[in-house]
Amino acid sequence: MKIGYQKLINAAGTKEIGEDYLIDGTSKAWASVIVSGGTPTINDSLNTSSLTDDGVGSTDYNFTNNFTDANYNPVAAGGLGTNYLSMGLGVKATNQALVVSVNSSNSSEDNSTQSSGLSIMGDLA
To answer: Which of 33, 61, 89, 124 falls 20 to 30 Å from 54 in CA-CA distance?
Structure first.
């Protein structure tokens, strides 16, 4: 056991996890976003201070607390009617913001109304 190493234990004492897993393995930023009429709005979030609309289907997620660098791991999902979405992450990733680009698989679908979610694992500055 490392000096200063801690484990978190549940109330029943039946499960435990090392602090390294908690520190390194949890989401440091996430957001649930709805885009309606072309305007992105945060439903709920952690460490996401605001959104910047970059045009149809492209949104900057701005972080409250910066990451140490742009080498974090974003995971995203989205929905748009009954069509699948193509989501591009990190088009201009920095330690302060990440661009998420959402486009429909159907050219007749309106990209200005959609929902998306984003979770990011990495080290905060």
So the answer is: 124
CATH for 12 = 2.60.40
58 found inside a domain? yes
pTM over 0.90: no
Residue 2 lies in a domain: no
The whole-angstrom separation of Cα 87 and Cα 116 is 9
Are the beta carbons of 53 and 33 closer than 8 angstroms?
no
- The 10 Å Cβ neighbour count of residue 48 is 21
1 has a pLDDT exceeding 50? no
Please report, to the nearest 10 degrees, the dihedral formed by the alpha carbons of residues 46, 114, 35, 60 taken in order. Answer: 60
Sign of CA pseudo-dihedral 55, 37, 105, 83? positive
User: What letter would DSSP give residue 67?
Assistant: B
